[in-house]
């Protein structure tokens, strides 16, 4: 149950969560908390966690979830205090150190954040931690050190090579180092020709580098190679719509993708965004609201819904969605725009 649903649906969702927690208290103990959070009823979720924490066997897990609730709702001081205490008690020390580094990064304490990430890397931290550390290193001009963090992983498990290459390209692209991002992708494509994820990332990077026509050309080739693949149709359709190119064709491509996967939140958002670019803001709202219901934590979809709400005069709701997008950690360039 999400935005735009009748109050009765919210009540039914809570009732089902309560039943699940009663019928399966081991695996579904936190069902009510998760449902309240999904409904954006944060204070009630906090009260429910406090109730669960009164059970000593659940105190540590409830405290952990309270820390995550503080973090997701933007109360960084409370989140830092809670995870700091967990680190001192050695309760989930690795996770606590990670979130303390994330909090330090959000508060602008870059040196403290980097120290935390480096501690985790020394203890075996993998791609997520290395990516966050690399972003900070590149921002401070330490490109070689950042690159070395990924090189270490490329010498490891062959199954993770694509994920590492994609992460490295994304980090460089976010920093505006598009030539370095593309060079890495091109080198990876020499080893894995026609790999769809690498090709898609190359198209996205070209578009971000203001080389949109080259990016579209990559997607067009992917569509010729995989004419019936919904993800490729949606990728091309969304890119065309986002750049206001061939809007009618963009809508057709996205609809063809949706015919294959009608409940795919990303595809539904793409259709809503195509309507937005066509100036049909009411239809944009209808579709993007549904996408948010299916994928409530996606910052891009929340940002799109904020834009659509603003256009139809629902300005308070627009501001709420933009704040929601910020809280869900959009990419740096998206963050500036939001």
What's the SSE blueprint?
Blueprint: H1 7-23, H2 31-38, H3 42-53, H4 59-72, H5 76-88, H6 93-106, H7 110-122, H8 127-139, H9 143-154, H10 161-174, H11 178-191, H12 196-208, H13 212-225, H14 230-242, H15 247-260, H16 265-278, H17 281-294, H18 299-311, H19 315-327, H20 332-337
Helix pairs in contact: 1-2, 2-3, 3-4, 4-5, 5-6, 6-7, 7-8, 8-9, 8-10, 9-10, 10-11, 10-12, 11-12, 12-13, 13-14, 14-15, 14-16, 15-16, 16-17, 17-18, 18-19
Q: Which key terms come to mind for this protein?
A:
mainly alpha; disordered N terminus; 0% strand; 76% helix; globular; 338 residues; 20 helices
Description:
About 75% of the residues lie in helices and about 0% in strands. The chain is mainly alpha-helical. Helix 3 (about 40-55) packs antiparallel against helix 4 (about 60-70) and helix 14 runs antiparallel to helix 15 (about 245-260).
């Amino acid at each position: 149950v999400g935005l735009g649903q009748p109050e009765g649906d919210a009540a039914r969702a809570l009732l089902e969560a309560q039943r699940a927690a009663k019928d399966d208290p081991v695996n579904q103990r936190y069902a009510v908390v998760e449902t309240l959070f999904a409904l954006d009823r944060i204070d009630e979720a906090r009260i429910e966690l406090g109730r669960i924490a009164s059970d000593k066997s659940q105190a540590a897990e409830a405290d952990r979830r309270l820390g995550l609730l503080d973090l997701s709702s933007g109360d960084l001081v409370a989140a830092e205090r809670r995870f700091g205490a967990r680190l001192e008690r050695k309760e989930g020390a690795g996770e606590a150190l990670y979130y303390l580094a994330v909090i330090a990064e959000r508060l602008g304490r870059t040196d403290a954040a980097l120290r935390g990430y480096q501690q985790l890397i020394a203890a075996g931290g993998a791609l997520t931690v290395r990516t966050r550390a690399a972003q900070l290193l590149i921002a401070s001009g330490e490109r070689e050190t950042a690159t070395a963090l990924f090189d270490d992983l490329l010498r490891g498990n062959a199954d993770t090579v694509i994920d590492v290459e994609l992460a490295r390209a994304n980090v460089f692209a976010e920093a505006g180092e598009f030539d370095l991002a593309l060079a890495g992708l091109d080198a990876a494509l020499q080893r894995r020709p026609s790999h769809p994820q690498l090709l898609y990332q190359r198209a996205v990077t070209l578009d971000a580098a203001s080389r949109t026509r080259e990016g579209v050309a990559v997607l067009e080739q992917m569509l010729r190679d995989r004419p019936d693949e919904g993800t490729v149709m949606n990728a091309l359709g969304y890119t065309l719509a986002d750049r206001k190119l061939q809007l009618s064709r963009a809508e057709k491509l996205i609809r063809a993708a949706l015919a294959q996967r009608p409940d795919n939140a990303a595809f539904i958002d793409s259709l809503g965004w195509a309507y937005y670019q066509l100036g049909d803001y009411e239809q944009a709202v209808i579709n993007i609201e549904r996408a948010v219901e299916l994928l409530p934590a996606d910052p891009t979809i929340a940002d799109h819904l904020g834009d659509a709400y603003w256009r139809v005069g629902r300005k308070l709701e627009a501001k709420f969605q933009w704040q929601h997008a910020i809280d869900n950690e959009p990419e740096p360039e998206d963050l500036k725009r939001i």
